[in-house]
Fold this sequence. Notes:
Layout: H1 2-7, E1 13-14, H2 23-27, E2 31-32, H3 36-40, E3 45-48, H4 53-61, E4 76-79, H5 85-97, E5 101-104, E6 107-108, H6 111-115, E7 119-125, H7 127-137, E8 141-148, H8 152-180, H9 185-192, H10 200-211
Parallel strand pairs: 1-2, 3-4, 4-5, 7-8
Antiparallel strand pairs: 5-7, 6-7
Amino acid sequence: MAANLLKAGHRLTVWNRSKGAADSLISTGARLAGTPREAAAEADFVIAMVRDDIASRKIWLDEDTGAFGMLKAGAVAIESSTLTPVWIRELAKAASARGVAFLEAPVAGGRPQAEAAQLIYLVGGEKDVLARTEPLLKAMGTAVHHAGPVGAGAMVKLSVNSLLAIQVGAMAELIGLLQRLGADVDRAVEIIGTTPASSPAAKTMATSMRAGT
Length: 213
């Protein structure tokens, strides 16, 4: 995602918890910050993509290093992590208390979609803030869906994840059944993947299961 922002011509400052993770970005023009607060200084848009609610809280609200401590007037804070609706609403209130415009913008898509700038954004927040931010998001994705107020994006994203998990479980059960029945499992999975009943995700996951990956 960061690499695609650079390709689109944006000036980019990056920060990562793991040393060396941003080396390739630095070599192609990004500036490295020492803390989230330093990364947010002078930025028009600040994007976070971290593991969970706890990491998100630290990124934005840490008293010493949190990004909210340095956001300039008119900047937009964008939280793209997969988080709980409860926390994302709390974070939005913290942003509002500081006079900061805020959007939640979790994504559907994995690493291949991120690299190809084909992510699908599931946005929660005010429409006018989204209008300002959408051109930036489209440097990283092919679709930007406004799900509703803050919290709606998280609910849709968690629903997408749940649907994926259900399909993974179902494909695993079907593969086990086919094995027990003595079917040509690879051929059966290949055929199932061509039918309307199979989603692209189910097809990919079934192929990965059969490949042992």
